[in-house]
Write a structure and sequence with these properties.
The chain has 3 helices and 18 strands. With 333 residues, the chain is α+β, with helices and mostly antiparallel strands. It folds into 3 domains: 60 residues; 149 residues, Immunoglobulin-like (Sandwich); 115 residues, Sandwich (Lipoxygenase-1), CATH 2.60.60. The strands form 4 sheets. Strands 2, 4, 5, 8, 9 and 10 form a 6-stranded mixed beta sheet that branches. A 4-stranded antiparallel beta sheet has the order 1-3-7-6. Strands 14-11-16-17 form a 4-stranded antiparallel beta sheet, with no helix packed on it.
């Protein structure tokens, strides 16, 4: 009798445990379903907020969407250099609510030396565009390409060509004037309208750059580092030749890198497992820019700096940089 009682008692216990498990599983399933539903609704609401915000901006006013930034670099000394952008008007009436598009430009002096005057300028109105002259884009909305050259920007501002240096910037701002007198521009923007989802910044920046030129004659310096401390391995696990190859327009070639201990480097490398410095000489009379070619960084450990004869660093290459031509800051050469 006692054995039968124990068996029955165990059966009841198992039944209760199973029932409890099933009950808990049902509760867990309901909670999980609720969480999934809540997440789905929240995601939809978040997506709707983005769409609603864009629609609200269009319905209560207008936006100027960026289609393509064609040129936002201004090579110094080149009168043909320009800022150029393709934009599209969007409003509730397919562009008919916009009466005019005003264009303002300004100047940021980013190269103020100690003791010199900061030549930053207030923006000025340079042009008023008539939307009726815009073409109709693929979505049935007015589009135009606006272009302004370096000489035009300098002439419109209280600066001269001599005031413009590499790294300085011009600002280009658009302002929509609606038929009812309302205005919309950069200050009316939200993060939604300036982000990648819907790019309508109204404000653009064109940076002054220096075009390639023959390198300054004299002794150039390359300071090299290796994060692991075993020399340079540009293209293979053990080495693979020089990391930096400089080719001058007269055909002179300089092969540069830290010696690797794993194989015969095969070129006149620089001693130093963790760091080292070498130089190369640029003769006077060159007529074209030099080519600075980085061969690669197999282990992601190589870094270096290129310094001109006047002491300016024109390239600062971090570890892990991909193989290819090195961008030289010609403004500092």
């Amino acid at each position: 009798m006692s054995g039968g009682f124990i068996a029955t008692d165990l059966s009841v216990s198992k039944w209760l445990i199973t029932k409890k498990k099933n009950y808990l599983m049902k509760i867990f399933s309901k909670i999980l379903s609720f969480m999934v539903l809540f997440f789905f609704i929240s995601s939809c609401e978040e997506g709707d907020k983005v769409f609603d915000e864009i629609q609200a901006n269009v319905q209560r006013g207008a936006v100027l969407r960026t289609i393509n930034v064609i040129s936002n670099e201004i090579p110094i000394g080149n009168n043909d250099s320009n800022f150029s952008v393709e934009v599209e008007i969007q409003d509730q009436e397919n562009g008919k609510l916009v009466q005019a598009v005003e264009v303002y430009i300004g100047f940021r002096d980013n190269t103020v030396a100690d003791g010199e005057t900061d030549l930053d300028t207030e923006e000025v109105l340079v042009e008023i565009l008539d939307p009726s002259t815009f073409s109709i884009g693929e979505f049935g909305l007015p589009r135009t390409t606006y272009t302004i050259t370096l000489p035009e920007m300098v002439a419109a501002l209280p600066i001269s060509n001599d005031d413009v240096d590499g790294s300085d910037q011009f600002t280009i701002r658009f302002e929509l004037v609606l038929v009812d007198g309302r205005r919309y521009s950069f200050a009316d923007n939200s993060g939604t309208l300036t982000g990648s989802f819907f790019s309508s910044p109204f404000l653009y920046t064109a940076t002054v750059v220096c075009p390639p030129k023959p390198p300054t004659p004299g002794v150039w310096t390359v300071e090299m580092q290796d994060a692991f401390g075993d020399g340079w391995q540009p293209t293979t696990a053990d080495g693979g030749g020089p990391g930096l190859v400089v080719t001058l327009s007269d055909g002179t070639v300089y092969e540069i890198g830290l010696c690797t201990p794993y194989e015969d480097p095969g070129y006149d490398c620089t001693d130093g497992a963790s760091s080292g410095t070498t130089t190369f000489t640029v003769p006077a009379g060159l007529t074209e820019a030099a080519d600075f070619n980085f061969r690669g960084d197999f282990w992601g450990e190589i870094s270096f700096q290129i310094i001109t004869p006047n002491g300016n660093t024109v390239a600062d290459i971090p570890a892990g940089t991909e193989a290819g031509s090195i961008a030289i800051d010609y403004c500092k050469d």
